[in-house]
Amino acid sequence: MAETPRETDELLETAKVSRVAARQAELGGGEQTQIIVFTVGGREYAVPIDGVERTERPSTVTPVPRSPEFVRGVASLRGAVLCVIDLGNLLTGEPSEADPRSFLVLTDGARRLAVQSEDLPDFVRIDKGHRMPPPASNSEVYSGAVERDFEIVGVIDPERLFDLVEQRLAGSA
User: Fold this and answer.
1) Tell me, what CATH number does 121's domain have?
2) How far apart are CA 131 and CA 157, in angstroms?
3) Tens digit of pLDDT for each residue in 68-80?
């Protein structure tokens, strides 16, 4: 696991460089893919590395009046104002009590948001054959699952996550 946000950014940059090679390996029957594992509400989640733009140190989050409970607010991250969400609250209804140690900036095309993490993210290579079906709960946001330390970790599909966030925001208006 990376020790500092700078090391995490360096790992992300290295991962981006290796994406081309990874995609070529996939086309040629490659066996591995990379995910980023992070913790929210004491529970581990994962996201494919190509859905993460970068990680950031937590910064001041400005609450947004009348926003849903899963929206922690907005933060200025490298000059861009992003919505910061509590993923645990969005998926389980239980707000995260721990202070975030990092933000993961997720992307899906032009859509971007920051997800709070209680720890620094962990970069993991997994064998494609070890992917499992998505967890039954909140299956609308998962593309699959992996086993990690004898626990099942849901792999979030960024596009589905953004769709769910937009749906919940529209429903609260």
Assistant:
1) 2.40.50.180
2) 13
3) 999 999 999 888 8
Do 118 and 96 meet the contact criterion of CB atoms below 8 Å apart?
A: yes
Expressed as residue numbers, the domain containing 137 is 5-172
Length of the chain (residues): 173
Of residues 153, 151, 126, the one with CA closest to residue 138: 153
Long-range CB contacts (within 8 A, 24+) of 72-77: 72/116, 75/103, 75/114, 77/103, 77/105, 77/114
d(CA 123, CA 1): 7
pTM of the predicted model as reported, rounded to 2 decimal places: 0.78
How many distinct structural domains can be found in the chain? 1
Q: Nearest CA to 70 among 50, 49, 87, 46?
A: 87
